[in-house]
Amino acid sequence: MVRALWPIPKASQKHFPEFAMVKRRAAVHTMQPMRSRALLCALLLCSLGSPGCALWHRKPKPPKPAPPSALAVGTVTLVNEEGKFVLVDNGALPVPPVGGVLKCYAAAATEPSAELVATDVRKRPFTIADIREGAPHKGDRVVYIPPELQHGKKTVTGQVAAPPPQPSTAAPGFQ
Question: Partners of 130 in the beta sheet?
Fold first, then answer.
């Protein structure tokens, strides 16, 4: 007979075999709650690592900027052939930047009649522009051409313009 390490009260000795049996059955069932706990912990860790609702609330990508296009800036009000300049009435239209290339178009023409360079805005809404080439006329539409659209700097006649002259690097007096 096996001696118990601690004394068992006499009243509980008659129920001890049932208690031992329940204890053994409980040992078989302890695996199921452990699996569910492990599964619950794994599920909890996965949910903490996921982005959650951020998948549905994505910010839209910013739209790409529109490609530059020619911009109407006014009409020719005055032409001075001797001074080689014109006066452009901008009205409520935007003012072209100083040094910007302007093209003049007759009322129904698709080809430019002249090419201008914006020089100064003296009194709003008037812009002064130098005549680069061509013959502008009073009432012509004036359009600003952004630098991105000036491919090869084509002139009014279709020929490629000569590059601007480079400054001399020689010392003054030696040419």
Answer: 85, 117
CB atoms within 10 A of CB 95: 17
Looking at the chain, the number of H-run helices and the number of E-run strands are: 3, 6
Residue 87 CA: distances (Å) to CA of 29, 34, 48, 103: 98, 90, 69, 13
| 95-135 confidence digits (pLDDT tens) | 899 999 999 999 888 899 999 999 977 788 889 999 999 99
- Asked if residue 105 lies in contact with residue 62, where contact means CB atoms within 8 angstroms, the answer is no
- For residues 106 and 166, the answer to whether their CB atoms sit within 8 Å is no
Encoded tokens for 10: 């006499």
Q: Look at the block and give the residue holding tokens 């952004």.
A: 146
Cis peptide before 125 (omega within 30 of 0): yes
Per-residue model confidence as pLDDT tens digits over 15-27: 666 666 655 554 4
Environment class of 12 (CB within 10 Å of its CB; exposed 0-12, middle 13-18, buried 19+): exposed
